Amino acid sequence: MTGKKLLFIVFLLTVLSAEAQQTTIKRTLKLMGSRFDITVVALDEAEGNKYIDTAVAEISRIEKMISSWDPSSETSAVNKNAGLRPVKVSSELFELIKRAKGISKLTDGAFDISYASMDRIWKFDGSMKTMPSEEMITASVEKVGFENIILNEAEQSVFLKLPGMKIGFGAIGKGYAADKAKALLQQKGVVAGIINASGDMNTWGEQVTGQAWKVAITNPLDKNKAFALLPVNNEAVVTSGDYEKFVEFNGTRYSHIIAPRTGYPATGIISVSVFAPKAELADALATSVFVMGKEVGLNRINQLPEIECIIIDSEGKIFTSDHIEINAYK
Ligand code: ADP
Ligand code: MG
């Protein structure tokens, strides 16, 4: 009896000391023009900071590749040669563009990286006073269309068929960067962490307390108040919301996510959270559901394995995909 008890005490001490050796380090910084919060579990502060430096370097590397602002990026080279010639790119960028085209097909064009070719007729900074005409809206998307992104596998080249056409990674880049940073840290042996790219969350492992990481889904009608706190185990959760960027005409709220086919901003939804194994797909799908609307969006998500979503419509009603249950709290 005493023997057993002693064994138990020794076991408990081992567990406690193993936990005592772990600490959580977090850093907040601006990358890719957005706020990033990087959290890692490490043996001490020095080790944690070294890991965070590794993640930051990886995210900066990706930013250099996909930035449309940086004239020396591979993406800018592709855009500058639109209508002129194919551009040979790194296999990493080639594969990213190929997957993006795949998501366009999956969403019937609701997601489209060539959205960047759109004329910027919508402003979401409060400066817009009248709704653009139907002609202007239709004309604004003339150069948009993922079918005109021509990929040559053998040459590893990308050709944008129409002059003035552009690609942009605004709706997928942060998710991709979060996936890559997570993968690199896991490869370095980091047992647990969170990469949060302005609401594009990617987690692995668990908190030092042994509990799952939790994400707060923001209440879009009151962004300082979370309405649900959900555990996330080794997966990604991405929230796209229009509570910061939208414009209103005649009582209709137009979001900053624009339907690539029509040129009209998405309406009817104010927030979409998507759960998926990878942040890249979650990021792209969150944007897509906005464009597809709640019926089509939910339907599409329900057909995809391992993907779930929570939608909040413009009346504040909550809709969830088939395998998700939330106990909302106020
Ligand atoms: P945010 O990053 O602002 O939370 P998203 O991840 O949904 O939101 O990305 C929105 C951004 O994606 C827009 O600011 C724009 O750059 C780009 N975008 C807008 N509409 C589309 C679309 N239909 N397909 C692909 N990208 C889009
Ligand atoms: Mg997105």
Structure description:
There is one protein chain. The chain is α+β, with helices and mostly antiparallel strands. It has 2 domains: 192 residues, T-fold; 87 residues, ApbE-like superfamily (T-fold). The protein has an 8-stranded antiparallel beta sheet. Strands 3-5-4 form a 3-stranded antiparallel beta sheet, with helices on one face. The protein has a two-stranded antiparallel ribbon with strand order 8-9. Strand 14 and strand 15 form a beta hairpin. The longest helix has 22 residues. It is globular and about 65 Å long. Adenosine-5'-diphosphate binds next to helix 7. It comes from Autumnicola tepida. It catalyses: L-threonyl-[protein] + FAD = FMN-L-threonyl-[protein] + AMP + H(+). Its cofactor is Mg(2+). Belongs to the ApbE family.
Describe how the helices and strands are arranged.
Blueprint: H1 2-20, E1 23-31, E2 34-42, H2 45-66, H3 74-80, E3 87-88, H4 91-106, H5 134-140, E4 149-152, E5 157-160, H6 173-187, E6 193-197, E7 200-204, E8 213-219, E9 222-232, E10 236-241, E11 246-249, E12 252-255, E13 269-276, H7 279-292, H8 294-303, E14 308-313, E15 318-320
Antiparallel strand pairs: 1-2, 2-6, 3-5, 4-5, 6-7, 7-10, 8-9, 10-13, 11-12, 13-14, 14-15
Helix pairs in contact: 2-6, 6-7, 7-8
The structure holds adenosine-5'-diphosphate (ADP) and magnesium ion (MG).
The site of adenosine-5'-diphosphate has 16 residues, from helix 7.
